[in-house]
């Protein structure tokens, strides 16, 4: 499988960075299977940091590597995903010993729904009802050095 990482700098040797803001799956090295999504993340990273060049670094992750790692996979925006993202976004980090956490992205379109859920305006059922029709992209959070060791760098493109 090919995965893409969007940043304001090229990344050929990924590292686990400390958590500097609340992310869906907690601290980790984030990738996606969607090049266009990674390109958007890269452009956003340049704007947020005020420096660098939008760069999408591509990696290959062998399917057999996934079988050797402890992976938590959310197939869609279900109740378990919503609770997991909620814990991480509210800085009650859920690092349940997984090497990789994969699932939908809480993006700009989903954040209004999630924020209303976090504040108690929406119940879990209402939040999920509003999220299900959205076409959510994926994200893979590499959470351990073991997970990073299976990534094979391929190239960097500037979108």
Secondary structure: elements and pairs:
Blueprint: E1 2-7, E2 29-31, H1 35-49, E3 55-61, H2 63-68, E4 71-73, H3 79-89, E5 100-104, H4 111-118, H5 124-131, E6 138-142, H6 145-149, E7 151-157
Parallel strand pairs: 4-5
Antiparallel strand pairs: 1-3, 2-6, 3-7, 5-6
Helix pairs in contact: 4-5
Give structural notes.
Helix content is 33%, strand content 23%. It has six helices and seven strands; from the N terminus they run ββαβαβαβααβαβ. The protein has helices spanning 35-49, 63-68, 79-89, 111-118, 124-131, 145-149; strands at 2-7, 29-31, 55-61, 71-73, 100-104, 138-142, 151-157. A four-stranded mixed β-sheet has the order 2-6-5-4. The chain has a three-stranded antiparallel β-sheet with strand order 1-3-7. α3 (79-89) links the parallel β4 (71-73) and β5. The mean pLDDT is 88.
Mean pLDDT: 88
Radius of gyration: 16 Å
Biggest sheet descriptor = 4 strands, mixed
Proportion of residues in helical segments: 25-40%
Oligomer: single chain
Summarize the entry for a quick read.
This protein has helices spanning 35-49, 63-68, 79-89, 111-118, 124-131, 145-149, and strands at residues 2-7, 29-31, 55-61, 71-73, 100-104, 138-142, 151-157.
Summary keywords:
159 residues, single chain, alpha+beta, 6 helices
